[in-house]
Amino acid sequence: MSQVSVEEKITEEVTGGEFEREPVPQSKLKSWKSFLGMYAGEHAAGTEFMIGPLFLTAGVSAFDLIIGLLLGNLLAVLSWRFLTAEIAVKNRLTLYYQLERICGKKLVIGYNLANGILFCFLAGAMITVSATAVGIPFDMEMPKLTDTMPNGMTWVIIVILIGAVISLIASKGYDTVSRAANWMSPAIVLAFVACGVVALNQLGVTSFSDFWNIWGEGSEPFPGQIKYTFWHVVIWSWFANAAMHVGMSDLSVFRFAKNANSGWTTAAGMYVGHYMAWIAAALLYAVYLKSPEAQALLSNGEAPPVAPGPLANNAIGIFGIIAVVLAGWTTANPTIYRAGLAFQAIMPKVSTFWVTIIAGTVATIAGLFPAFAMKLLGFVALYGFILAPFGAVIVFEHFFHRQAGIVKNYAEVANIKYNKAVLYAWAISFGLFYFISLQFDVFLSFVTLPAWLLCGVLFLVFSKSFKKKVN
Q1: What radius of gyration do the chain's Cα atoms show?
Q2: Which of 290, 289, 299, 278 is closest to 66 using CA atoms?
Q3: What is the pLDDT of residues 23-54, one digit of tens each?
Q4: Cα–Cα distance, 47 to 224 (Å, whole number)
Q5: How far is the C-alpha of 137 from the C-alpha of 139, rounded, in Å?
């Protein structure tokens, strides 16, 4: 055994095989094939059953949806390839450890808390998705698009039971979560394809022009929704996973890649999940909108409900119900697991099992309130807007530290608990652009990129300034 192999074996034993605080050794690197299936499965899941129909409630046109998603998802893939994967293979560190070296331990605690809570809310929305399918045999009243509170005891009981099962699976650890996702994902992708084909048949589509005319020139948004234009679709789909790519969360994934070209595998997730699956789910809702029930609601000025369970059941029956349940699980399971890890960084003495149960409990409580799922477009935009600027700190330090004359990993080098340059840069960029969004009614995803850029620039300026004061 070579000296390198001995060192790698020792490193793996010390870090428990996950290399949380060490660069991933060469012997543990994975080929692009390892990432292809993961991204295809992770992004064809519960969120897709909600997001597709919600685009229709925003009154999108055919061009806005089909071409807008094509471009927006391409921008997301480019962000993963040339930012996230590029930095990941250079440093081979997790997001959390890399942030700790730049920001200091105290600031990372704040990041982990925000990350964990937002993960719980997202998981809660997916519990809601699964509940709409489980409730069908019990003739449960489905939540409306405008609902915020639980609509009955049946809903509460079903959500609590689903949340308990998902939390227990997540608490068993990553291997259990991974096995569950790998088993469920092919069935979910097949269900999306089947739903799309059946929906096209139900809509009487026989040509591309028929398909295009489903959305046509668009429509007025439903009550309580905002109108989505081409640029809304492009920018929103680009930043739907902002926390993962420009926010650098997937550094933890791509640190295992042999080279940065593995970043291209994210296209499998974007064009299977965030293109095919979103459009297939939108087609399901288009079928429902033609029903007498939906037409009656629209004539009364009410928004027809966006409940994935009944929509899939209408298309492919019991397989649709099962697919929606599994889709909710495949998103909620790893999301609760990730939230548990974020909380464990704050409470290191608490076991992984119990922090995951805590995360699952918070997610289940969130799942009781349909607003998190029914307002998923807005929530995902907020999630990315809050977390993405932290990624700008990593990106700008990596590419511009020499030009700016700043010290890399300053918190580690200076042995400080929190780096004021990071705190001030994030607070100013977040506060300024969130105020602009609220005051001038600007779509939140439109200000995510400016906030990200400003945070990166301010970080360089403040780092230069505070370095002079320290030295």
Answers
A1: 22
A2: 278
A3: 777 777 888 887 887 787 778 877 888 888 88
A4: 20
A5: 6
Strands (DSSP E) contained in 147-272 are none
Distance CA 343, CA 366 (A): 17
Among residues 341, 363, 405, 319, which one has the least CA distance to residue 118?
A: 363
Q: Give dist(CA 189, CA 209) in Å, integer.
A: 25
Q: Among candidates 139, 194, 180, 199, which has minimal Cα distance to 326?
A: 180
Can you say whether residue 301 is alpha, beta or left, with left for phi > 0 and alpha for psi between -120 and 50 degrees?
left
For the chain of 471 residues, list the mean pLDDT of each consecutive stretch of 10: 35 44 76 80 80 90 96 97 95 87 90 89 89 87 83 91 87 65 78 93 93 90 88 95 91 88 93 92 92 87 84 89 84 79 80 86 93 85 92 96 91 91 96 95 93 97 76 47
How much is the mean pLDDT over the chain? Answer: 86
A 10 A CB-CB count for 370 gives: 28
Cβ atoms within 10 Å, residue 269 = 27
pLDDT digits (tens, 9 = 90+) for 365-379: 999 998 888 888 888
- Pairwise CA distance, residues 184 & 190, whole Å: 10
Contacts of residues 179-183 at CB distance under 8 Å and 24 or more positions apart, as own/partner, are: 180/329, 180/330, 180/333, 181/41, 181/42, 181/330, 181/333, 181/334, 182/37, 182/41
Q: Which CATH superfamily is domain 28-376 in?
A: Hydantoin permease (1.10.4160.10)
Q: At what angle do helices 46-57 and 278-289 cross, to 10 degrees?
A: 50
Evaluate whether 35 touches 253 at the Cβ level (below 8 Å): yes
Task: Give the whole-angstrom CA distance, residue 426 versus residue 393.
Answer: 9
Cα–Cα distance between 310 and 315 in angstroms, integer?
Answer: 9
Q: What single-letter amino acid sits at 35?
A: F
How far apart (Å, rounded) are the C-alpha atoms in residues 104 and 98? 10
> In the numeric block, which tokens belong to residue 157?
């009981």
Integer angstrom CA distances of residue 318 from 83, 327, 396: 42, 14, 50
Question: What distance separates the 2 farthest-apart alpha carbons in the chain?
Answer: 75
Residue 305 and residue 53: Cα distance in Å, rounded? 10
Burial class (CB in 10 A: 0-12, 13-18, 19+), 132: buried
Contact 222, 144 (CB under 8 A): no
DSSP string for 212-248: HHTTTT--PPPTT-PPP-HHHHHHHHHHTTTTTTTT-
At 31, give phi and psi (nearest 5°).
Answer: -80, 170
Q: In the 8-state DSSP scheme, what is residue 277?
A: I
